[in-house]
Amino acid sequence: MLELRLVQGSLLKKVLDAIKELVKDANFDCSTTGFSLQAMDSSHVALVSLLLRAEGFEHYRCDRNLSMGMNLDNMAKMLKCSGNDDIITIKADDGSDSVTFMFESPTQDKISDFEMKLMDIDSEHLGIPEAEYHAIIRMPSAEFAKICRDLASIGDTVVISVSKEGVKFSTRGDIGAANVVLRQNTTVDKPEEATIIEMNEPVSLTFALRYMNSFTKATPLSNIVTISLSSELPVVVEYKIAEMGYIRFYLAPKIEE
Amino acid sequence: KAVQLSLTEFYRSA
Fold first, then answer.
1. A63 in Cβ contact with A94 (< 8 Å)
2. Where are the alpha helices (DSSP H) in chain A?
3. How far is B9 from chain A (nearest CA, A)?
């Protein structure tokens, strides 16, 4: 028996919006720790890792570990039927081939339930070891989204370089080239407007902008994004989900042959 | 020409 009650139901809609462009079908894993997901895009270039901790739910009952295969477009269709202020409860019985989403209006005057068929999904689960990163950039998520969107209008790839000068995002395309340099800035009115660049070693890596732009669909989940770079590793783009957990995107770099 | 690496070149199946 599984029963997860999320008072801020809109959070689940935002999570779906953040990942459904990257991943079509995925297994949601439920355990005593929380509600989680790890899935790769079809080309195995990018990976999304989601955790919504059990403590973040108003009520969290998960009698045994359960993996539920869902088509994310269908799940998004169902969640779209909830009101923005609704409380969402996810329910499933052991061994059932369906999951139920229950939506309650804040005043309890409207209660709906939507049942969705589950699917069997063969998914490869990757072990991602803890790593030391050469550079970690913490910046406003909206600024990162703007940079990715702007650069994608010029080129297909972005070179992210971190040096003593700051962090540089560069691209090149048929019509020209673009460079955006951000310097550390902590003299801001609100902490979420700060740009903090932590550099252990200079690093420069190339990534496909198409994936970066897809990651920025998570912007409504957090004001801050953290980008972790190491020359031998995929980049990690993390959006923290307040009091609940995180959504992390991993993207393999491109290398010159 | 830049070649796109795959995640499985970095991380192993758990």
1. yes
2. 10-19, 72-79, 141-152, 209-215
3. 9
Quick: pLDDT tens for A108-156. 999 999 999 999 998 888 999 999 999 999 999 999 999 999 999 999 9
Tokens standing for residue A124: 């490869």
Cα separation values, A85 from A9, A183, A249, Å: 7, 38, 27
A82 close to A13: Cβ distance less than 8 angstroms: yes
Given CB atoms, is A158 within the 8 Å cutoff of chain B?
no
Q: Chain B: residue nearest A209 by CA?
A: B4
> What tokens were used for A216?
């920025």
Cβ pair A126:B6 closer than 8 A: no
Pairing of the two strands A111-117 and A98-104: antiparallel
Does residue A45 belong to the interface with chain B, where contact is any CB pair within 8 Å? yes
Burial (CB < 10 A; 0-12, 13-18, 19+), residue A68, is buried
What mean pLDDT do residues A227-232 have? 94
Residue A173 near residue A159 (C-beta atoms within 8 A): no
CB contact under 8 A, A252 and B9: yes
Is ipTM over 0.85?
yes
